[in-house]
Design goal:
about 450 residues; mainly alpha; four-stranded antiparallel beta sheet; 19 helices; elongated
Length: about 450
């Protein structure tokens, strides 16, 4: 019975896909040209239906070169809906560090991921270069003519669909490495969502338009969108928008403006590592004093005295400034405030682990035997010191990926001492098993 239901479900998907097959390129083009005649006809272009027809024809023309493929379709599903159509060529390509199978067709390229699913559709021969732009204009015109708002729901759905297609194009361009093109499409998506009657603020697309422009090195454009993001209250993950604006200001030679962005961001997101590192670098490079950092942190503590993450931030600041004892005190304060806050333990463990790595590197370059042995002793002492806080972190962590990362640290640390003490051998085996189990 289960197998019958599975087959029926597959057939339902296939039937839906077949029924949704796009028009051929030539048919789609003819439909646009016919609809365009009505748009250019003074007797018809004042009618709501004329522009709806034109907008739909343009969207169909946009879809036509993509064939019958859809994202996440398997090759088996595509064979059922595409008949005997074969790719012109097939090759393996690497995009973003991942390997894809690229199938080349006359109007498009299909990219299949390692699971054999269609992950990207790249149009290489569009019917019209700006079909979506023209379709958006057509639906906006239809909205103007819909004075009774009888078709607001239909127009809204059509424009939202166009915005979604812009976003798909943006992510495709991003994956293919065309960052400038991705930024343009994210901007178009934001504009489509802002158009009447949708009137939505697409904060994600606004931020991404800035982010991809920043990656492309177009800082003026990136600044425009990042400032818009701040204006609408969208700051990216952990206030990353402020870090990016600070980076742009610094590259423009405006160190004071860069600092202002960082301080504003720090007040809202004191846990942000990128903002924190930026502030530390600013104060060290400009006046050698980081007192302002502790002033800002003190202000945050007054507002949230029981926020353990603020002491984690303090620990990170002290650690980066080389104030190890103060860092330990701050990390320990995290547990005092909230015994289940894992990151205080993690911060303390990482500090000692990184310290051990530093001593190890110094020892490997030391030719004097006495100095070498002293460095080895410091290395082992720091390595042992990281074990307890990492183990405490494991006891309270909930996220499995973070637990595996901590177990990796513990495995490496215990490996050093496994032959000297049976307890370290047991710990090494335990944490090795955790890491290996996650990799299966």
């Amino acid at each position: 019975m289960k197998r019958i239901f599975t087959v029926l479900a597959l057939l339902a998907v296939m039937t839906s896909a077949v029924n949704a097959q796009v028009k051929s390129v030539s048919a789609a083009q003819n439909a646009v040209e016919n609809a365009k005649k009505d748009v250019e006809n003074p007797k018809k272009n004042t009618k709501f239906a004329t522009w709806i027809k034109y907008g739909k024809a343009l969207v169909d023309a946009y879809d036509a070169p993509a064939g019958n493929g859809w994202i996440n379709a398997s090759r088996q599903e595509l064979q059922l809906v595409s008949g005997n159509e074969k790719p012109v060529s097939v090759e393996k390509v690497t995009l973003g560090g991942q390997e894809w199978d690229k199938e080349v067709y006359p109007t498009r390229n299909y990219y299949f991921n390692a699971a054999g699913q269609l992950g990207l559709i790249e149009i290489t021969k569009p019917v019209y270069e700006n079909a979506l732009d023209m379709a958006l204009e057509a639906y906006s015109k239809a909205n103007e003519l819909d004075v009774k708002h009888a078709k607001t729901k239909d127009i809204t759905g059509a424009i939202l669909s166009i915005a979604g297609k812009y976003i798909d194009e943006a992510y495709t361009a991003y994956t293919l490495g065309d960052l400038a093109k991705a930024s343009d499409y994210f901007e178009k998506a934001a504009r489509a969502n802002a158009a009447e009657p949708v009137c939505q603020v697409d904060s994600n697309s606004i931020y991404n338009a800035g982010f991809t422009a920043w990656l492309a090195g177009n800082n003026d454009r990136a600044k425009e969108f990042f400032e818009k993001s701040v204006e609408i209250g969208y700051y990216g993950e952990d206030g990353e928008t402020y870090a990016k604006l600070a980076d742009i200001a610094e590259k423009a030679g405006d160190a004071e403006k860069s600092k202002d962005y960082l301080e504003e961001g720090f007040q809202k997101f004191p846990q942000s590592q990128s903002i924190l590192v930026g502030l530390i670098n600013y104060y060290l490079s400009n006046n050698g004093s980081t007192d302002r950092l502790f002033e800002l942190l003190g202000e945050a503590k007054k507002n949230e005295p029981n926020n353990a993450s603020l002491y984690y931030v303090e620990g990170n600041i002290c650690n980066q400034l080389g104030k190890i004892e103060d860092a330990v005190a701050a990390y320990d304060k995290c547990a005092e405030i909230d015994p289940n806050y894992a990151y205080g333990f993690i911060g303390k463990g990482q500090m000692f682990y990184n310290q051990a790595i530093k001593y190890s590197e110094e020892a490997s370059n030391e030719m004097d035997d006495a100095k070498y042995m002293a460095l080895v002793e410091k290395f082992e002492s720091s390595l042992k010191a990281c074990i307890e806080p990492f183990e405490k972190a494991l006891d309270v962590l909930k996220d499995e990926n973070t637990k595996v990362a901590v177990a990796e640290y513990l495995k490496n640390a215990c490996f050093r001492f496994r032959t000297a003490d049976e307890s370290y051998q047991q710990k090494y085996e335990k944490y090795s098993a955790m890491v290996a189990g996650a990799q299966q």
